[in-house]
Amino acid sequence: MSLDDHAEELASDLGVDKEEVREDLEKLVSYSVPIEEAKQSLRRKYGGSARGSSTPTAADIGDITAESGSVTVTAKVLSAGERSIQREGELQTIHEGELADATGRMIYTDWEEFGLTAGDTVTIGNAGVREFMGQLQLNLGQSTTVSFEDEDLDVPYEVGAPRALADLNVGDGAVTVHVQVVDCETREVSGREGSPKPIKSGVIADGSTRLQFTDWEANAALEQGASVRIENAHVGEYRGLPQVTLGEHSAVVALDEPVDVREDAPRVPVREAVETGGMIDVEVLGNVLSVRDGSGLIERCPECSRVTQNGQCRSHGEVDGVDDLRVKAILDDGTGAVTVVLDRDLTEAVYGGTLEDALAAAREAMDRGVVSEAIAQRVVGKEYRVRGSLSVDDYGANLDAVAFEENDDDPAARAARFLSGVDA
Ligand SMILES: [Zn+2]
Questions:
Q1: Cα(34)–Cα(266) distance, rounded to whole angstroms?
Q2: Which ranges of 55-104 does DSSP label H, i.e. alpha helix?
Q3: Which of 97, 134, 208, 229 has the CB geometry, 3.0–4.6 Å to 80, for a possible disulfide?
Q4: Centroid of ligand 1 to alpha carbon of 314 (angstroms)
Q5: Contact in structure between 188 and 196 (CB atoms under 8 Å)
Q6: What global pTM score does this model have?
Q7: What is the DSSP string of 291-350?
Q8: 294 C-alpha to center of ligand 1: Å?
């Protein structure tokens, strides 16, 4: 065996870069360390690293954990697609999709073009396991081997089947969905060469829920009201919410049959909605505990719409603020608390007057605070049904409301529900 062969074997066993191993091996051999001894010490050196245990173990997908290191799996390819990403300033195409065996399913990223196709049964040797956004992922890299099996593996999942939006997770790739476009707008961003480029974004829905989308290719088939099959999309994350992302490798096909959309929002306990990492359309039911600072009459920056503090915008310095109304209310349902944000329309409804009325009241009292005090008097202590988009960031959970309705159930039922903590 040549030094090169030894390096190759070692790199493959350890799941590390061959060049790196070869350099170390050369150095040790040049110090007259016998080759087997040199290999042993390199196994010790790399064996303890995060990249893998010394020998990849054959694993069932259902048994893989973030600590599995490198694994060997035999699985069926459920979906396979490609996506362009920026990596170290270069545009690179990666292959990704989903694999399954009898025990579970798992997403993969292939950096080496192994040529996986949906429906293939493959044995993947020495693939790295990593955790991304709370989801386990198989990484097929330089030291991974792929062999295509003749025998078809039986799995309890359908190859290439459309996924329900509610089942998608951030990080999923090569995803197919059947959806209705419920909201779609086109805008221009600056493209790769700085020239303007149209993109589309909005909301898609199916029978399970709705999600945001962005299409960097502004596909013509994506238009308001259209029912479409989207192939080879990726699930990214945008402003604390999952987002279906389409790129140059994605396809959109109009469907003959309209896709039925779930009209109501799922009612979810606050804690559960927060734990899923955000939901674009959800209903929670809880009691308003307080109205936070920054409610009532506020001023916004005329350039970026951010709320100004003492006439100062965080980005634009001193500006001539534009009056607006909003409410930030703490809502608690017994499982957790969320900050509900009401826009001007919803705020006018709970205030019982327009922005002009609010400005007049503030002038009369010579105190802008009277508006938020009046709002607090109306809402604090009452129970509300709130529908909207719940996002989660470092500061907690925010629910951008599209509907905010006082719950008109009888008080006894409300009290019982509040005491029991959870309303399923
Ligand atoms: Zn500004």
A1: 66
A2: none
A3: 97
A4: 6
A5: yes
A6: 0.66
A7: E-TT-EEEEE-TTT-PBPBTTEETTTEE---EEEEEEEEEEE-SS-EEEEEE-HHHHHHH
A8: 17
